[in-house]
TrEMBL record:
Xref: PANTHER family: METALLOPHOSPHOESTERASE, ZINC-DEPENDENT ENDOPOLYPHOSPHATASE
Pfam families for this protein: Metallophos (PF00149)
InterPro entries to which the protein is assigned, alphabetical: Ap4A_hydrolase (IPR050126), Calcineurin-like_PHP (IPR004843), Metallo-depent_PP-like (IPR029052)
Protein name: Metallophosphoesterase
TM regions (residue ranges): none
Amino acid sequence: MKKKVFVVGDVHGQYDMFIKLLTHWKEEEEQLILLGDLGDRGENPKACFGLARDLVENKGAVCLKGNHEDMLLDFLNSPQHSAALYDMNGGMVTVQSFLDIKEGQYDAVELSESVKSQEPWLKPFIESLPLKYEWEDYVFTHAGVNLTLKDWTDTSDRDYVWIREGFFDQPNDTDKTFVFGHTVTAMLHEERSNTDIWLSGDGKIGLDGGAVYGGTLHGVVFDKDGIVEQYKVSNTGYAFSQFFGGN
């Protein structure tokens, strides 16, 4: 077991930012952990999924399942029922990226079958992604855990990838530090334009800097005692929308 971990926040298809952030990763010293949401909305989701797969299979990285992976899997399994929700959450950007097609009117079932045919590795890869990763006194998840439960380990599979309220707004009375993405840190800070990492003060650390919205992609190094280094890549190029106005 390596003595440090390098944790990457929500990438959302921002391949250039992803690559730039990884230049800070010290492979020999740090276990790489990706918090999920590899695609949707960003400039090149296909490349982000491909890179994550390579990092997992050849570099021993841990890639957690995010809610956007969850929606993509639903789209691949039952497009007739899930395409509308996936599209509303930027998923068609990912589908177009994999199939190299332009925006337009397409049949959801045909799109799903085409992705599975052209990228046969994708569905098994998503299905293999863990919901959490524990290291020392840390628990890494995409969205968080249910802190309203008597025992957080009873958190449902859905909550690990989707929870917001019931986690960040609850006291952490456990002996664990929870590191998560999913909820853009600007929504957790009092100053809504602040895309820095979020520290709750009681063992909850948010790393989704809203990279795809013109915010920040975070990479944070932890050892067993806390944060060792913080790296960030600011979005100076493609943004899905100007969520933070002016960036």
